[in-house]
Structure formats: C-alpha cells, structure tokens
C-alpha cells in the first residue's frame, strides 16, 4: 500500500542539515534527533535481577534501522537505574544488579548499531519513583513479584538520595560510557522522581528542597558534578536533561522557568530536550508576534523562555513535528536548535534521510485520531517489534514488513485490535505491567 504524507510546502531544508556543536566539543551531524521512545523489547521473560532488562538481538536490529536512518543523534528508550523500581515492563535496565559481561556486550552492540552512520548514541536514564510497580506479567501470562513498594525518596535522608539515585546514575553513566555510548539523558519529566525535586511541592527541609527554586535544583547540580567526576567533560561524554512543560504549568512563572534553565546552563548540562506541546501550532503562533495577539500557549512561552535562558546548553524540542517548513522556521526563529521525532520514527526510521534529501517534506499521515493516545502508542510498539524481527542486512528497505497506518483500512483494523488488547491488559492490572507487545497480523504486508 502506498504511504500517504501530510500535505506540506516545499522548503529549503539547508538549516536542518547544519551541525550542532556541544560545549564539550562533540558534534551532531544534523539537527534531527530520534527521541526516546519505549520499545518493550528487552528481556523480561527471566525474572532474575541479573538478566531482567538486558538487550537482545531484536534491539540491535531495531537500532540499526535508526542508525542508518540519517539522524544526527539517536536516543534509547527509558533505561531504569533500579530493577526494583521499573517504569514499564519490557524496558531496559542498567544497574549494578544486572551488570554482567553479557549485558555489557549487548549494550555495546546497541551503541554500535545506533552509531552505524555516525549518529551520536545517547541513553535515557529514569527512575519512576511513586510510579513504579511491584509486580508484572510476562509474555506467557506468569506473574512475578519485583519489590514491596515504591521508593519514597522525597522523604528519605540525604544519604539514601545519594545511594539510591546519584550513585546509581553515576554507575549507569560510567557503564554506558564504557560500552560506547556518547552520553546520557536524565529523564526529568512527567512527574517522575528526578522531576519531583524541582517542583513546588518538594517539601524537603535540607538543601534538596523547600520554597527556594535554587535549593530545589541542588540535586541536579550535585548529580551532574558526581557524573563528571567519573566521566569528565573532556571525554566527550554528553549529559542532558528531559523537561516537560506540563510539569510546571500553573505552578511556575515565566521568570522561574527562565531561572531554572539558567541554572542548568550554568551547571554545565550539554543539552535539554523539551516536550509538552504540538510544535506545528507553536511555530505558527511564534511567527505572529504582533502585540495584539493573545499569548495563551504555555508551551510556546516555555520553550521560548528556555531558548533565551540557555547560552551554552543545546535545546532540542520533541512533540508534534509534521512538516519540514515548521522545522526550518523554528530553527530560524531561534525557538530550538534541534528537532526530535518519536512515533514518526517508529513507522519511518529513515525519515531524516528523506527530509534532508528533499524526497519528503512531511511525516506520514497516520489515520489514528489525534486524541487516541494509546492506539498510536501500541501501533508504535508493534512497528518497532516488526523492525526488530530482522537485521538490516536481511531487508531491502528499513520499513519492510512494517504496517502502513496511513491506509485507513489498516489503521481501523489495528484500532479495533488495540481496543481489545487494552481491555485485556487492563483486566490484568496496570497496562504498563504487561511485558509484551500487542500481537497483530497486518492486513497488508
């Protein structure tokens, strides 16, 4: 079936081909990034902590596709730093508990696949905090107990914060550096544990909390410095953060957002990935700067403030990119330096190559409803699983076998099956505790 694209104007894409230079000397070959995205492909069939969350050949096959896709930088999905506190069953884990020569070898293979065409390979690290679950169900339907409960770090002593968070991130960063990764991104978004330190409801009474913003950022300052003692900036290893504007909406003033970003910049973070809104709409509004226009788009205000506040920290924005013209305009308007794709890259791993060569001017026009978050999420999981089934050496195109959801019949059929699947996993507990991807037979090969 022919892939259909969103209607878009032709545009000079030269700004997207420009290199991005990071403060520690590393260079991304273009402005396009494959953003972090849950894969649910890691080993979770074996409940043993030494084997759970370890990569496999499927992950290597998947990241080969993105590695050759033309991205300047490629991110992994969430890699949790503590096997007792996972965010989603099927995700990767990097910790002292599962650190074995076999695990390191698989992560090294992943890094090589990501860098196959000279992209930078970045691993995203996360701790879900209160979002963690205590048990999961494997692909055969068997339940496994993980822990007794979530880690309430915001009420824990500073020594626990150091041992359970800072030390674990440092351990993971050093391990991944040794495996060939070019950097890490600390997921400080969506209300997870790293995000909670920054928010106004952090009531800690030590230097990691309270009413003063500077105090609430001290954890991220100490975390950065601890990583740099083990993996110095001179090594070229990048350290970045992910921020979601929705975490600060209605609680942070514009000045507070600016000061937060200034602190990250002053601390030394190499990049920040921002998310939380639809960029096509934001770019249109950013082009209309007349004072008579009401500026009620919080996400636009957030990203513009961040861009002004960061002098050395590179800004990437992920979320809702559809057309090359919007991407180019965002760069020209200094709204962002880099463009991140998530689900658009699940169905089209070589999207950057097509955009930068002028073959395509927009993303694919998938026929799922924009409001149907979970259907498109499961569709991306299935597309990634399909790409993971075969090495890039065994396919003609990187999209071979991947279902075309721009075909209305295919999209409708998948949406029906996804609805049945979501009822199934909901009956078993939280959707994220099922360590398997939806089973689906495409109508068209």
UniProtKB/TrEMBL annotation:
Keywords: Flavoprotein, Oxidoreductase. This is NADH:flavin oxidoreductase/NADH oxidase N-terminal domain-containing protein. InterPro entries: Aldolase_TIM, NADH_flavin_oxidoreductase, OxRdtase_FMN_N. It comes from Caenorhabditis elegans. GO terms for molecular function: FMN binding; oxidoreductase activity. Residues 53-359 form the NADH:flavin oxidoreductase/NADH oxidase N-terminal domain. Signal peptide: none annotated.
């Amino acid at each position: 079936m022919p892939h259909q694209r969103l209607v878009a104007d032709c545009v000079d894409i030269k700004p997207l081909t420009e290199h991005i230079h990071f403060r520690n000397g590393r260079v991304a070959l273009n402005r396009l990034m494959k953003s972090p995205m849950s894969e649910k492909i890691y080993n979770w069939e074996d409940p043993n902590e030494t084997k759970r969350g370890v990569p496999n050949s499927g992950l290597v096959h998947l990241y080969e596709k993105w590695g050759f896709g033309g991205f300047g930088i490629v991110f992994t999905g969430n890699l949790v730093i503590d096997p007792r506190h996972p965010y989603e069953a099927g995700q990767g884990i990097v910790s002292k508990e599962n650190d074995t020569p076999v695990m390191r070898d698989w992560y090294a293979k992943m890094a090589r696949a990501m860098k196959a065409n000279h992209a930078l390979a970045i691993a995203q690290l996360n701790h879900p905090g209160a979002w963690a679950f205590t048990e999961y169900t494997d692909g055969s339907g068997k339940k496994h107990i993980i822990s007794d409960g979530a880690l309430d770090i915001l009420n824990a002593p500073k020594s626990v914060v150091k041992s359970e968070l800072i030390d674990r991130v440092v351990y993971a960063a050093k391990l991944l550096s040794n495996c060939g990764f070019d950097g890490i991104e600390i997921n400080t978004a969506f209300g997870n544990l790293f995000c909670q330190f920054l928010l106004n409801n952090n009531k800690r009474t030590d230097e990691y909390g309270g009413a003063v913003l500077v105090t609430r950022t001290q954890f991220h300052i100490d975390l950065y410095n601890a990583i740099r003692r083990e993996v110095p900036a001179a090594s070229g290893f990048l350290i970045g953060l992910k921020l979601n504007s929705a975490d600060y909406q209605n609680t942070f003033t514009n000045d507070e957002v600016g000061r937060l970003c200034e602190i990250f910049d002053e601390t030394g973070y190499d990049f920040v990935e921002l998310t939380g809104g639809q960029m096509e709409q934001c770019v249109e509004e950013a082009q209309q700067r007349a004072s008579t226009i009401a500026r009620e788009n919080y996400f636009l205000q957030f990203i513009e403030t961040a861009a002004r506040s960061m002098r050395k920290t590179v800004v990437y924005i992920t979320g809702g990119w559809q057309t090359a013209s919007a991407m180019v305009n965002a760069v020209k308007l200094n709204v962002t330096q880099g463009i991140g794709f998530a689900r658009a890259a699940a169905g089209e791993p070589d999207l950057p190559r097509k955009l930068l060569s002028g073959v395509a001017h927009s993303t694919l026009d998938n026929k799922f409803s924009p409001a149907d978050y979970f259907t498109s999420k499961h569709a991306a999981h299935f597309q990634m699983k399909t790409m993971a089934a075969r090495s890039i050496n065994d396919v003609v195109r990187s999209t071979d076998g991947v279902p075309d959801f721009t075909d209305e019949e295919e999209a409708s059929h998948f949406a029906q099956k996804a609805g049945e699947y979501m009822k199934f996993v909901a009956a078993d507990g939280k959707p994220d505790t099922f360590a398997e991807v939806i089973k689906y037979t495409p109508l068209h090969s």
